[in-house]
Amino acid sequence: MQTIVVTGASRGIGRYCAEQLHQRGHRVVGISRHSDESAPFEMRLADLSDPESLPAGLGDLRRDASVYALINAAGIASMNLLLTTPMKTVRRILDTNLLAAIATSQFFAPAMIRHGCGRIINFSTIAVALGLEGESVYVASKAGVEGFSRALARELAPHSITVNVIAPGPIQTDLIASVPPNKIGKIVQRQVINRMATLDDVWHLVSLILAPECDMLSGQVFAVGGV
Questions:
Q1: Can you give the pLDDT at residue 174?
Q2: What's this model's pTM, rounded to 2 decimal places?
Q3: What is the rounded CA–CA span in Å between residue 15 and residue 25?
């Protein structure tokens, strides 16, 4: 049985993808900084913004040759102008969104090499391509994820591991709960497809990338909604 690791598995996109994978018979290991006894899959606690804490609760997975995929869905946002964003918040966003993606990829790639193939899916945002004002720090963190993923795809290609990025437009999750509806509407109107994406829209793309037949798809950024 293949093992798929999903970060940010306690809510939002991460939770939805983890549940879909569990229903399809995969062993799913969800990683979150919050415990959730209602999850139908295995959950591990870890603070992904602190890479040194990963071995404590996840060391067995690093050596597990059944690990096939890593889905990095954990992320935070702060919708503020740069001049009103405290440096403490800047560091927290960069650590959670960019440093965590780097650290988890480094941590789990050896297991995928032992598996003989693998998939890494990182998450960005359509805000990078659109250069959305009021989200400069969030955009910086996710632009870093995109650049990192493109380079990592080349590094891991000899091991039959693909690395891709999914960059959704607005989806009704906690991440945008505090964003005014009129701002969401303006973002949606700048997309190629003028509607909000759903969790199903993202899941269908995730399932495609995870498919064994998709071994020629790597180093790409897929904007859900289009830009």
A1: 74
A2: 0.95
A3: 16
Q: H helices of the chain, where? A: 12-23, 54-62, 87-94, 100-115, 126-130, 136-156, 181-190, 199-210
Residues 33, 50 contacting (CB under 8 angstroms) = no
Task: Read off the tokens for 114.
Answer: 């032992």
pLDDT of residue 79: 82
For residue 59, the one-letter residue type is: G
DSSP 222: E
Full DSSP string of 61-115: HHT-TTEEEEEE---------GGGS-HHHHHHHHIIIIIHHHHHHHHHHHHHHHH
Please indicate whether residue 68 is annotated as part of the active site.
Answer: no
The answer, yes or no, to whether residue 181 has pLDDT greater than 90, is no
Domain architecture of the chain: domains with CATH? 3-224 (3.40.50.720)
Q: Among residues 138, 144, 149, 168, which one is catalytic? A: 138
Whether 164 and 150 have beta carbons less than 8 Å apart is answered as no
Give Dmax over CA atoms of the chain in angstroms: 49
- Say if strands 118-123 and 161-168 run parallel, antiparallel, or are unpaired: parallel
- Mean pLDDT of the region 185-195: 92
